[in-house]
Design brief:
Two copies of one chain form a homodimer. Chain A has 140 residues and is mainly alpha-helical. Chain A is 46% helix and 11% strand. The longest helix of chain A is centred in the middle third of the chain and has 13 residues, at 52-64. The relative contact order of chain A is 0.16. At the A-B interface, β1, α1, α2, α6 and α7 of A face β1, α1, α2, α6 and α7 of B. The structure holds a DNA duplex (30 and 30 nucleotides).
DNA sequence: GGTAGAGGGGATAAATTTAGCCCTATGCCA
DNA sequence: TGGCATAGGGCTAAATTTATCCCCTCTACC
């Protein structure tokens, strides 16, 4: 297995939090689970940009970090459900804030991000969590 | 210059925000500037884990993304001061929340992070922003 | 002349993260 | 029998991000 060669810095809270949220899909995963989408296959459908492999890996990390809990039903085909732990829930205000901030400033951000010469092409089809109406949420 | 090969996804706010905050030191940089540490050399001293090069690059990205403004004084030796833009300030509640969340759950997080087999060694000496007393802050 | 301070930035190597494939297992359906 | 769905996870190759080194500018100081 891969091992870090550079020491992890974890003095200020910022770095600790970053470590937990570090991963292309982690915030989106937490968000999805909080909104009631708990099965891996459902989450995968909601995040068309992600591979099954990546979701699987990042879900595992979130679990190891204690943000989510996994319940495996001994069935076939297998059934697994994730849910937020208490500390995982405590992250939600932050995830929401990140999400809202991005949406609030979308026009501006899209503009400046496009100006970045490193950015050549863009996708705007991925996460469809917005389309979950409040009625579909299963919070708690 | 390096160009992205994988299309950037920017549908939900989460991804947009992530793009802006993406960088090992970006949240810390914004935090430092918000607290009144505006010159690159001062920031560098506060973040012993970072190289001059990295800070320089990430500051530039933050500037290109419109989060901070750079004022160059035509002096010698050169003098540069960064400050948050309006949209940059609007990120501060989030940065603060990230910071506080990490500090609040420090004990727990340090434990679970250490259990990660990838993590071999750790540093706890870096950012010293906590040591800035309120009196030293120059907000606004 | 050599050194230090302040800032910028090119080039390249190393580290780390994602993407892509493949294989496991079982029951259901055509 | 072949294909699909569901979930895990090994392994390798790309992609992306950080770390390192080095050079440049100009001035003051020893």
């Amino acid at each position: 297995m891969y091992k870090r060669k550079i020491p992890l810095t974890m003095d200020c809270g910022l770095h600790l939090t970053k470590e937990v949220l570090n991963g292309k899909w982690k915030p989106a995963l937490l968000n999805a689970i909080a909104l009631g989408v708990r099965r891996p296959s459902e989450i995968l459908r909601l995040l068309p940009g992600a591979t099954r492999r990546v979701l699987s890996v990042q879900l595992k990390e979130l679990e190891e970090h204690g943000m989510i809990e996994k319940k495996t039903y001994p069935q076939l085909p297998p059934k697994v459900e994730y849910s937020l732990t208490e500390i995982g829930w405590s992250l939600m205000p932050i995830i929401d804030a990140l999400n809202q901030w991005g949406d609030t400033h979308r026009t501006f951000l899209e503009t400046v991000i496009r100006q970045d010469p490193k950015v050549v092409h863009i996708t705007k089809s991925a996460c469809q969590l917005q389309h979950l109406s409040v009625g579909e949420q299963q919070v708690g």
